[in-house]
Every structure is written in structure tokens, then in C-alpha cells.
Amino acid sequence: MYIEVEKIRKSYGEGGALVHVLNGVSTQIEKGEICVILGPSGSGKSTFLNVIGGLETTDSGRIRIGGEEITGMKPEELSDYRRETLGFVFQFYNLIPNLTVRENIEVCRYLSAEPLESGELLEILGLMEHQDKFPSQLSGGQQQRCAIARALVKNPPLLLCDEPTGALDTGTAKEILILLEKINRRYGTTMLIVTHNDAIRDMAHKVIRIRDGQISREYENTTRVPASELEL
Predict the structure, then answer these.
(1) CA dihedral sign of residues 213, 214, 219, 220
(2) C-alpha to C-alpha distance for 181 and 186, rounded to whole angstroms
């Protein structure tokens, strides 16, 4: 099992202002799976993604990625873990405005000992003709493609996506999901996709529903459909 999460808890605040965000969450995810994490706002799904990504620490519980336990890691160890293992894709792109598309991608290429070729990603993601443009010259969908390429150029085994289609129109959102599916098939990248859009679950290998900081349901999707056939 590639991702193993065991009874993780996470809270914020203290005393009367203490808020329990994750309440003993446990799950497992196979290598190479696309896992969609669903839940209403405030359910804990983004916090769940952040603790797996080492962006936040847990109060208790254990998380193992590829057999390596990340709970209890020191800050410098978590930094190495994020650099070597993870790619992040967020809702609002976070591109560097004064760098071109290619430069935004290659900033992260040098973080990896075995990076992918920037040209290959530009081709796969339909950005070759836009490689010398700046983010302000791109559409929202093109910016998200650039953000995905930047996350992937390190050749990470695990890609974490937090509402990757949330800021996009329906047609562009479907294009991004088709690209993520294509990348999963081509590179075997394990993907965790946090979303509020129920329709995206149909393309996933595994679906996890989180409510009030707990997993309310999880299942392997035996009737998954191609992203191109989703009705968003």
C-alpha cells in the first residue's frame, strides 16, 4: 500500500476556541490510483491533503508514504520529503508573474535528480506555443496547465491537487481533468484530488467522502468513466 493513514487527528485553537478538524481519520490508497476526496466546506478535506503533504503537522496518528513515516519528521526532513516526493496543484495557480511559462516550469525542474523534460510536458499539456508568454497573457485554463506542468516536472510519485478546477468554467475544467488522467496513465502518478464537485468522483479509482472531520464513506470505483465523459 502506497499511502497509509492511521487515526490522524488535527485541531486548531485552544480552550473554548478549540476546533477539531480531523477526528481519527484512517484510510489506505494504492500506488498509481486517482483518489478523489469529497466533502462540504469545512469538512476537513483540505486539511487532510495538507497533512499528507507535510504542510501541516498532526496532533496524533500516523501517515506513511511509500513505507516512510512522515509524522514526527523534523522541518528539514519534511522539506526533503516535499521536494522528492510531492507535486502540488492549487486552485489559484501561484505562478511567478515575471517568469514565462517555460521559466515557471523549469524553476522546479532543478529540484529533482530525475526531472522530466520541460519540452515533453509543454507538448503533453498543450503549452508549446505559449511557452514564452507570461502568466498575465494566459487564460485561466492555460495558467492551470502551467501549474500542473510545474508540479510534474520534478517527476513526483505523488500529486496533490486542491480544487484544481474550482476557478475554471465547465469546459476548461473538463480539459484539465482529461490532462490529469492522461498524466496518471503515462507516468503512473498517484493523485489525490480534493474537490466539492461530485461529478469528478466518476473518473477516480477510489472515492473518499469526509464530513465533520471523519470519513463518512470510502470505496473503490469499479464503474469509473473516462474524464472526457464526465458531466460536470
Answers:
(1) positive
(2) 9
pLDDT of residue 16: 77
- pLDDT of the residue at 230: 93
H or E element that contains 124: helix 118-124
What is the model's pLDDT at position 136?
95
Contacts of 117 (CB under 8 A, 6+ apart): none
**CA–CA distances in Å: residue 79 to residues 39, 72, 144, 191:** 28, 13, 24, 20
The residue with cell 467522502 is 209
Read off the pTM: 0.93
Query: Residue 51 in contact with residue 22, Cβ under 8 Å?
Result: yes
DSSP β-ladder status, 190-195 and 158-162 = parallel
